[in-house]
Design brief:
Blueprint lengths: L7 H28 L3 H6 L12 H7 L2 H32 L7 H13 L4 H10 L7 H4 L6 H13 L2 H9 L4 H12 L1 H17 L2 H6 L8 H18 L2 H5 L5 H35 L3
Helix pairs in contact: 1-15, 3-15, 4-8, 4-11, 4-13, 8-15, 9-10, 11-15, 13-15
Length: 290
């Protein structure tokens, strides 16, 4: 077989994509390396790409704190509940809206798009959560991000792209609407469901602002609020201690901060590869009308 010849445009594309990949990957590699190194190695080479003076002390220290695991549990509960309930609502709402025979379909879609452009704002949302008695509860982290007009439109467009003949054949055989939806259409909708699950999971996992606004007690902290606490503590320790004092310690505020960042990022990084094969297909099929 002959060698494949690349034209100049392909060569430039490969070079640019490689450089962009390296730039995007480097911060993660640097955080992982610093978290596994001693503080003196970090001071001598803060831009390291390989661990130096290998040290697991920061991980042992951060994983011994009960508040970390409590925050982890809160974030997992919020993420799993929000994703599951949200996907169920998207399916129930997008299926009827994908049917042209639905009366009032256009006004409903106008209202949904309106919510993508305008919202009540921070203060009305805060008062709403307070009047519902949801302040300082995990429900206050779930409900505000439970439903998205953009995700609903993706799901609706995906349903519209599926062959109508499948539904017609099922109806001829006597299948009910719930049977058609959950036994025929939902199994065919794995790409868009996986895509929306990834969107929602990343959003819930990284949600910081709602925690700041609605959560007061440490027992209800999501993981991002705990990360903020670690970073603030690291900054205060750095201001109060000089480099010599910190270097003499096996575990310092800086290595703790980087170790916490790694622990926070790992779950999403582990989930993404399993959903990646559906991601592009779901976006492409759900973003245009078939």
């Amino acid at each position: 077989m002959g060698k494949v010849k690349l034209n100049p445009i392909d060569t430039v594309n490969y070079v640019l994509l490689t450089l962009i990949s390296v730039v995007m990957l480097y911060p993660f590699v640097n955080v992982a390396s610093v978290s596994l190194s001693s503080y003196s190695a970090y001071v001598n080479n803060p831009m390291m790409i390989w661990p130096q003076e290998f040290n697991l002390g920061a991980y042992k220290e951060i994983m011994s704190r009960a508040l970390l695991w409590r925050s982890y549990a809160n974030t997992i509960i919020v993420t799993v509940t929000g994703v599951a309930v949200g996907i169920f609502l998207y399916i129930l709402t997008a299926y009827p809206l994908s049917k042209r025979v639905l009366k009032g379909r256009k006004p409903i879609m106008v209202l949904i798009v309106f919510t993508m452009l305008f919202n009540g704002g921070l203060i009305p949302n805060f008062y709403l959560m307070r009047e519902l008695g949801l302040l300082d509860t995990l429900s206050a982290l779930i409900l505000p991000a439970l439903f998205s007009g953009f995700s609903l439109i993706l799901m609706k467009n995906f349903f519209e792209s599926l062959p109508e003949e499948l539904e017609e054949a099922a109806r001829i055989d006597g299948a009910s609407e719930p049977f058609i939806l959950f036994r025929i259409l939902v199994p065919l909708s794995k790409p868009i469901i996986a895509t929306l699950c990834l969107f929602a999971a990343v959003g819930y996992w990284n949600n910081f602002f709602n925690g700041i606004i609605y959560i007061r007690s440490e027992s209800n902290w999501p993981l991002m609020l705990y990360l903020r606490e670690v970073i603030q503590a690291a900054s205060m320790m750095a201001e109060q201690s000089n480099a010599a004092e910190m270097g003499a310690q096996q575990v310092t505020s800086e290595t703790l901060k980087y170790a916490t960042l790694m622990i926070v990022m790992l779950p999403i990084l582990c989930v993404y590869p399993f959903l990646q094969k559906y991601f592009v297909k779901g976006i492409m099929l759900g973003s245009v009308k078939g």
